[in-house]
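Loading example: each entry is read as two labelled lines plus one structure line.
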Amino acid sequence: MFVWRNTPGVETRQRQADRTRETKRKLMEATVECLVERGWSGTTTTEVAERAGVSRGAQLHHFRTRGELVAAAVEHVGAESVEALKRRAQVAEKSTHAVVELIADFHASDLFTAALELWVAARTDPELREQVLELQARLGREVYGLALELLDADDSKPGVRDAVQATLDLVRGLALANQLADDTKRRAHVVRYWARMLEEQL
Amino acid sequence: MFVWRNTPGVETRQRQADRTRETKRKLMEATVECLVERGWSGTTTTEVAERAGVSRGAQLHHFRTRGELVAAAVEHVGAESVEALKRRAQVAEKSTHAVVELIADFHASDLFTAALELWVAARTDPELREQVLELQARLGREVYGLALELLDADDSKPGVRDAVQATLDLVRGLALANQLADDTKRRAHVVRYWARMLEEQL
């Protein structure tokens, strides 16, 4: 069995690490799906374990509370979405309009909806609030850096920092307007208008 | 007792109408306060009746469900806030910057926080969703009209409609960023930036 090429210990640890990663990934995706479908109040650890097809024991081993599970899920899916956005940006048009549209559509997504559930719950839950504030700072920095990169902008120039921050506030406002009804058409108008403004600025 | 000047029936009905209005006002304000302090899940009809100092019977007479109570409260306090904003705008500076600041601060308020709780709850509650969509359309029209008036803008001119809508999406995004931590300082920067852009536009 070629044990001389790879000791059983190493192989077992590798397989275990893969399984752990796979379990976590399933839990993360099930959590976001559950937040979108049933909201914060319907996202219990039991419900998520069931959706993910993971035993309660395995789930509790990784995440002790609903707050931990949900914050980890938003962070994990957030990081994956940022990577997906970067890949999409590489093959997309490089115009300001195309980039603002990409960023706006990225925000008007299930991930934003899941994050909104977490943010609103955190407002009235002191322990969760601390956790989410950290997550907010990390995700905020990452999305700001990505927007800067995609817009090919230099924020050491005057006004650029404000312009990029305003763009991110705008797309969050647009994402909010998309929660109860499909706002795609109106969003396209506002995005086109904003991109024109921004292009003159940058 | 001067009953010849005002029949007892009319006087009683008048007093009753005043009491009803006063009861409703107390319930509306207690509801918004409760949403801000305890969120949607902590805003029960029992809790609101207690805060308002209104009997459960009187409350149930006016609002049968939590959804009815909360939607009415957001609409009532929303209308009152719009009036307060109009009064403030009359005595404030008329510059684009002063107006955008007024609108942004109006949104980064307890009323927005209460509305956000209602909107997020409505997303996963079909009955509430229908109700909130109507409210969203009414409030949206009202705030759009008010912004147009305060900015002294004419939306029959090209681009003005998009500019005002983008302003409202932006201030909603800014309000969202103010939920977990005080974002006043950053907001002031973004507002100043946007007011400069908008002034060139209008």
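The first helix of chain A runs from residue 8 to 42.
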